[in-house]
């Protein structure tokens, strides 16, 4: 660390810390024993899971876990942490897949799940205000019961919090119609690293300088703790209609998706599967014999609008040689849309991971081909499949699954690392973005400098100005690691599991 970089004060002794935080949240909301802290040593980063299978940690145990019940308690925690030089990690539900919530130094984890209430539903202004720790599925269910939805429906809705959605700049399955989380958040409250509480009042728009809201959205806990969010509210669609299509080629399906978005149509859901994933979903379906590529679209809204939108889209699909097929793949997707399948693979000893990137339409076919070639060269036995969802006029998210068969960890981890290297490097070489909606956490730290095109120092300066002690989720988002911190990553050996 150079002398010009901000320094942290020496962290206080554990017992003194515990007493300070107990006075804020109460003894029952300070977890200090190993069993209590253990679930907070990881999120859903697959690399962390691989390490745990060998009884190792990818990072370290948090020193303590705090469970505040109000925004005032969050503020008091942050102020105390700042005074004592203690690093904090905001924790939603630990469903992040890039290691954003993994302790790497001597952090205290702040579990926000007791902030779990809807504050107000305001149908007149089409807004809902919710505490940041509310579970996504519980939030959506309460809104649905009143005839509304936010339209943010990530696959992880049952295992994530609203604050986590905002912090990771997430995207849901209905994003082509309703947008991503940054399009939905109209206001928020947060506690900055110096303990200041800010309130970005919910209004349709403002022209008052750079958007402070957008500095917090996607900050992955490095610039403050989000305590409350106001989101757009939509009436539940009158009709939802799924369409299953068989396309002759991946290129035809991608071109059709591009034309749909550029024709200003806004399907609720659009999913195009590569040859591998199409095969898995269409076995014994006659339509796919000569047209092997599967696409599932959902059109939703008011009846006349849905009918028109669907008709216009079908004309586009037809012009690329697609035919409509049986509903089974749509029904299967609907039934399983919130199910996580990765756990079963990990449990069976496989090395399963997913990587989502963004590519422009003109780059996608060549980029995808290059990626498939690269990962198969690294390990011919790899399962490599992809689908394109989250479609835009400019391009799409390419969501890939890489799965190595059971083998020695010593052999698998370097292969896994090489595959990440190949995919992220090829993304950058083809002009794409290294992350579409999972965020950066720690696992993408190695690529963030190239991703940001010269702006990483600017991000670091914002961090240093707001958090001179580097106390708020340090070392994430490609920002400076504290001295002596564990470098979590595929190219680094995992640390043996030990008490901190
Ligand atoms: C099976 C599966 C499917 C997934 N599908 C999707 C998907 O469809 N779309 C999608 O976008 N993501 C998806 N994800 C990724 C993950 O669920 C999201 O990133 C989610 O938004 C994380 O929420 P969380 O509450 O679990 O946050 P955590 O994992 O607890 O935290 C994630 C990061 O946000 C920070 N953070 C959490 N809460 C706050 C807060 N209140 N204030 C400040 N910082 C905070 C943490 O410090 C950490 O850096 C999926 C993950 C899994 C395992």
Automatic annotation (TrEMBL):
It holds the Pfam family FAD_binding_4. Residues 57-236 form the FAD-binding PCMH-type domain. It comes from the Bacteria. Keywords: FAD, Flavoprotein. Belongs to the FAD-binding oxidoreductase/transferase type 4 family. This is FAD-binding oxidoreductase. It comes from Hoeflea algicola.
